[in-house]
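Fold it.
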Amino acid sequence: MSQQSSNSASNNPPYSSTHTIKKLGFFASIASLSYVFWIVGGMELIERVAFYGVKTVAGLYATDPVSKGGLGVTMTDFGTILMAWALVQAFVPVFIGGLSDRIGYKETIALSTVTKIAAYLLMAFFPTYWGFMVGAIVLALGTGIFKPGIQGTLVKSTTPQNSTMAWGMFYQMVNIGGWVGPLIAAQLRILDWQNVFYACAAIISLNFFMLLLYKEPGKAERVKNQEKLAKSGAPTKSLWRESIHEFKQAHLIYYTIIFSGFWFMFMALFDVLPVHIRDWIDTTAIVASLFGENGTDSVAWRSALGMNADGLSILPEGIMNLNFGMIMLTCFLFAALAQRLGTMNSLVIGTFLCSAALFIIGGVNAAWFLVLAIFTFSVGEMLASPTSYKLIGNIAPDDKKAMYLGFKDLPLGIGWVAESYIGPMLYDKYAAKETLAKAMLSDTYQQSTAALSAIPQGEYFTHLVSISGQSSQEMTALLYQQNNIGVVWFVMGAIGIASAFGLVIYSRWIISARSSLSSEQKSLVD
């Protein structure tokens, strides 16, 4: 039994080895990554192209009026879909992550691919609230099955010497997929929303080809251990019981509670910000700075930046792509920085930076300040998010890597489930342009309840502009000035700050635990 397992009842964090780790240089770390690592990185990239092709524009699709091909629902209704999505996607790996360790990573990756294809087709065939709800749940199930097998493979195909770089490069591939997916969605949704879902079903099917090139590391040893266990006649442990037993360790419980705040704040950016950009940010200022007042006729630039067909403004998913693009280009640099900073320092600094970005979003609605906020958030994300994977992966016993990487999704699940309802609900109540437009129609223009109910959801602002005699830009500015739009982002940012301070306390606890270790053991938590 590994040292992690023997420390299960202890209040001190476990350590898997007593050997000093020799840290590799930047290029040596990249060169040491194995063939298997690059294959699973490619599968993750493909999966993320399809996933973010839908996820980034989900709020826009849900709140677009039916007349434009959307679902025509409120942000609160969208939050209900998100909450179901988050519950399934975050907690499935926690309880079945160990399934990958037992039946094989390749098998669970194949199963997840079939499930995700079905999800995208459900969204395409049933363009209704409940159709999208069911499709989102099935997509979440497929994603939850996919991640433990992929990440378990990554852990088994790396070493302590290159694990930081491996997670950084892996995260870079995630963001290459995240950058490509929304750009595809931006062009396809201009034609028809359903095209987005058909395209994503086709894209994820490419992973069947990648599976032909995939070879599971440690498979022979796993099969041998299973055969040995079968011959011994010993009863097989219940996966969920074994997962609960492993999770009941102080360092895992404390980390889960504290880092849930990070994920609450983090997911708000992706669940709420696209709608905030559509409602309140005039991106023509960015286009004018780059190309002049007349925009650009270049198809290449319109595609790369996620612009409208007229080339005068950037779509919300195009702005969000600044996050993916920056990480895609620079994550390996910040992986090296994170390795120098150490695990806990990276988590704390990254969380503070992400929180600061949300305060910028809440405080200023100028387009270039939004760009600054997204860049700040991206730096924080690159320091904190991959490092959280590394922390859990390194403390896991060798035969339970996928199970522990399932535990990694617990703080994500808690934070995302809470945010998925609270974030859209707060935005709907205090900041949604449709909500504020409806209130102005009632209060200022004395529209009756019957008249308001006759206006389709998603078209209140359009109706307000038509009867006010003002332009949409003028009315947007008026609504922004009359309402405290930023309060939603201040709440989200404050939760992130609280999480960062919690991580400071957690890191001091770990440092205290390290004081009783040998110098060789201490090197493993840096």
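The longest helix spans residues 250-280.
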